[in-house]
Design goal:
The structure holds 2 protein chains of 2 kinds. By secondary structure, chain A is an all-alpha fold. Chain A contains 4 helices and no strands. The radius of gyration of chain A is 17 Å and the shape is elongated. Chain B has 4 helices and no strands. Chain B is elongated. In chain B, helix 1 crosses helix 3 and helix 3 runs antiparallel to helix 4. Classes of the chains: A mainly alpha, B mainly alpha. Chain B: GO terms for molecular function: metal ion binding.
Chain lengths: ~110, ~150
């Protein structure tokens, strides 16, 4: 049940980010200066942490989505749904362990 | 007396099950299938997007007009982003529609929330599509140092 709640919460969060993200990207049609000014605000440390949270939400939603598909279409899916949730959690940890150091280095380290 | 007026409403015992003809179409079935089909494709599109924009090179620090212009000079990324835009927006809109249906109990509340949702989604999908198709990576008069390298062929 909690995986269902988390799937909804992450889905709604991602959707609202998506609306904003398409609008900010549309600024490339206005001028290079306008786009660079707005995208520059994505490159601050606070937004960098927000991006980490966004990627975490996407990674969970993606892996749990595959689990939902397997529960629905794989004959043994319902039987193994709990085991698959732990696999989702494991894959989430591994993916974030690969993503976070590199992203946080880009945000807080060298860069410009 | 009143019950006797509708004898056909209850099937006779042991009569074979006959599925009643649906009167509202199969929209929810198609929506359920779409969420799963688009979800699989989005997994590839979004993970590829995140990897190329956040992991390769300097990650988020490398994103500026020249970066986007360089990407959208290639039909590959134009198609990638267009497909991602459409699938993600329909997947997300359909998901939020489900959430609104689940929690907004009054008909009028549900109607208003879904109207706002569809309006916002339509604006964003149309705007995004226009931007991908009408984008000029080398707008005339823009400072040269902000433009992608493809604007300066040797």
């Amino acid at each position: 049940m909690w995986s269902w709640v988390a799937h909804r919460v992450t889905g709604v969060l991602i959707f609202f980010f998506l609306l904003v993200h398409i609008l900010d990207t549309a600024l490339v049609r206005v001028s290079p200066e306008a786009y660079n000014a707005v995208i520059g605000t994505y490159q601050t440390p606070i937004m960098g942490l927000g991006e980490a949270g966004l990627v975490a939400a996407i990674v969970f939603h993606a892996f749990n989505g595959v689990r939902v598909i397997l529960v629905d279409f794989w004959a043994k899916g319902p039987k193994y749904q709990k085991a698959m949730l732990w696999i989702v959690v494991g894959l989430f940890v591994v993916t974030m362990a690969g993503f976070l150091p590199r992203h946080l280095m880009n945000v807080f380290g060298g860069g410009h | 007396m009143a019950q006797a007026q509708t004898p056909s409403a209850i099937a006779a015992p042991r009569s074979p099950y006959a599925r009643r003809k649906t009167t509202r179409g199969n929209f929810e079935l198609y929506s359920w299938v779409f969420m799963r089909a688009s979800g699989v494709v989005l997994l590839v599109l979004v993970f590829g997007h995140l990897f190329v924009n956040l992991m390769v090179g300097e990650g988020v620090h490398a994103i500026d007009f020249a970066f986007v212009g360089g990407k959208w000079s290639s039909p590959f990324w134009q198609v990638w982003d267009l497909l991602m835009l459409w699938l993600a927006m329909f997947h997300g809109t359909n998901g939020v529609r489900t959430v609104v249906n689940d929690y907004a109990q009054r008909d009028s509340t549900r109607g208003v929330l879904k109207s706002l949702l569809y309006l916002a989604s339509a604006i964003v999908v149309i705007l995004g599509t226009l931007v991908i198709f009408t984008f000029n990576p080398c707008p005339p008069g823009a400072p040269a140092e902000l433009l992608p390298s493809i604007c300066f062929p040797n």
